[in-house]
């Protein structure tokens, strides 16, 4: 019994000693371990626990080392865990702990989810800019969105790519020896220069004066038929010009071509030319055509009617591509504004193509827009009579004062005029006679009597013949003194 009691006492003593070691708080120091409840050791070894900002580090001082865990670790929610360290000892911050997901308090949000008044998210910041000016941010650098005075995001509805600014001749070559004197010129619209060249009667025996260049491959992306190719051209004389063209493709053997006819051009002036992508010339497409996603070739120039033509001083400035928005306009009222442009062209009337033609009104750059009337149009008879082309003249209000005549038809270059139809009204009682430009009475009826606000109508007929001894204008004259205003219209032809 005494031996068993001694063993029990020994076990109790061992357990007490172990508990004392376990529950006595200690910290790992820079050179030794120390009990925190020993005041004298604390004062001796922890004199440099606290440092002043920018103070020097001393290896002989004692310091408290705060430990961390390097590598992956899993901790149960609510338990104590170590600070996580990176390989270089830096403290790792878990960004995903910022409530991942798409909930109201999460940074992420699901597409088409309803906006809540207290939802959490990251706000996109933009730069407020009152005046839209050119920015100096380099191409390819980071930039910020720009916001207008009204809080609207500033955007550009038209995107563009410049194939070549045409400020220098580098990389450009002539299409053949029918093109000479390629050079830069200070007569330019964009950039610092433009390119100029001449048409010559060279051995190549072509009608083209053109220049070409090999490009670094350009991908235009998802283009549309209404997108545009743009350039600026100056042609000193259009007398022998047929059209201006632009070519894009992979080489001089494979390209699409776009043309603008001479009828749409103006001589001796810089003008902007717009080629619609969808208006490519069927005859001009060569080889495999173009590949919009890999453009490596550009050519631009002027085509003449004959290969023997010469013309100096053709100028082109910048060739570029532009996206173009669809627009639609409908005029449901009278247009009262004026158009001063020299190149207003009606391409379609009533969804029908409009043709242009030559004739007495001029050709080429001076031609007049014409509308073709069908052979079975009921109004066609108004413009012809017995195979003769009729001429219409509107008589605006004109005053006959004291015998001063009013010209109805200018000198036709003939002694005989046939009036097919005429309507004439006056605002006062008078007697009117038809005269020629020399105030000589014609072979028509000597006089017509008009009551106040009366008129005369000569219905459509075989033609009322007016003749004089020499080619003179047809006029009307108030036989009596006074002022009479006349107005109306007249259809006629001459022989």
The top-level CATH class of the domain at 162-322 is: Mainly Beta
Number of strands: 30
For the CA atoms, what is the radius of gyration? 47 Å
What kind of sheet is the major sheet?
Answer: 6 strands, antiparallel
Distance between the termini: 162 Å
Could you name the CATH homologous superfamily of the domain at 162-322? Galactose-binding domain-like
What does this structure look like?
With 495 residues, the chain is mainly beta. Among the domains are: 25-72, no CATH class; 162-322, Sandwich (Jelly Rolls); 382-494, Jelly Rolls. 6% of the residues lie in helices and 35% in strands. Strands 7, 9, 10, 12, 15 and 17 form a six-stranded antiparallel β-sheet that branches. Strands 8-11-16-13-14 form a five-stranded antiparallel β-sheet, with no helix packed on it. Mean pLDDT is 77; it is low at 1-7, 21-44 and 358-367.
Spell out the key features of this protein.
495 residues, mainly beta, Jelly Rolls, six-stranded antiparallel β-sheet, five-stranded antiparallel β-sheet, 2 helices, 30 strands, 6% helix, elongated
